[in-house]
Amino acid sequence: MKITFPHMGNLYIAIEALLGELGHEFVVPPKSSKRTLTLGTKYSPETICLPLKLGVGNLLEGIELGADTALMVGGRGPCRLGYYAALQQEILYDLGKEINFIVLDHPKEDFTRLKSQVVPLVQKGGLRALAKGVALAWEKLKAVEKLERTAHFVRPREAKPRATTQALNRALQELRRLGSIRDIRRRCREECDNLLALASTNAQRPIKVGIVGEIYTILEPFANLDLEERLGYLGVEVFRTVSLARWLRNNVILSSLGLYRSWKLRINARGYLRAPVGGHGLDTVAQTAALACKGYDGAVHILPFTCMPEIVAQCVLPNVSSDCRIPVLSLVVDEHTGETGFQTRLEAFVDLLSRQRKGGAGYEPACLSWS
Ligand code: SF4
Q: What predicted TM-score, i.e. pTM, was given to this entire model?
């Protein structure tokens, strides 16, 4: 069994640690690129959301490198993620690629099926390897997020242009080869210090923007056209409201034990949305309102074209924007998104935010949308 899986940002660093500990052969597909998108778009339904198209492209590239098994996650609630694995399997089957799928569903969906899916993964290394693999993967995931957060802080303050991105990429590659929790923690601390050392001591207070929206497009830099990097180099300190580690803890571990309640999100979204609408729709509305309370200058809402939960959120955001006095820019992405138009919107938004900061109270917040 040679396993491959779709990309979602730097999640591959945690997945390869887990599969390695479990004793499996695996193929990390090349990072998502124009070729991945072309492959995915060619074979996927036209109006399906971008994450599925890129996922199909990733799997095809993994198969080209010798993979015969795909690792996927299932999904719950009113969004298409739950159908992804079945749809991808059909698409690959039609292309003559008869590969096995291991689908990790939420434990509350169908525990017996989940158990049957996990068994082939664990059989080789046993429960001890599983426990070590999960611990290592979890530690790497936390380290990746800490490094990324540090880079978000340093980028608008850096003394040497582009040094942050280079240092972050180096640190992430370094993290991949570490095999113990102690080493990961130590290395993560050192690399964060290295990143912080790149910040200029007399940097101005940057504009602060929160990123809200659909989890895949927030985390996958190819899907969001390097949104965080672009904003950073426009002098913006970015705060990513989505954390994969937090999402896994709340929506998989705590919710399986019946211990997670979305009451905090519901309180923040009160008056706009009463219940989850699938995906991260409720989070988007709640987090935008929370960003305004925390004094952020603005919010960028990113979503794939035809994403149902985020379309609901997008309809609500103009009200949140004017009530909470926070400018919001909604960016819809798909395979037709052009870089130049994207960059122009970001520059105009950042310009609006800096003028708002200088203009003070007289400046009206705006909710802008671009697709
Ligand atoms: S949240 Fe949106 S983009 Fe993600 S799978 Fe669901 S519908 Fe597609």
A: 0.94
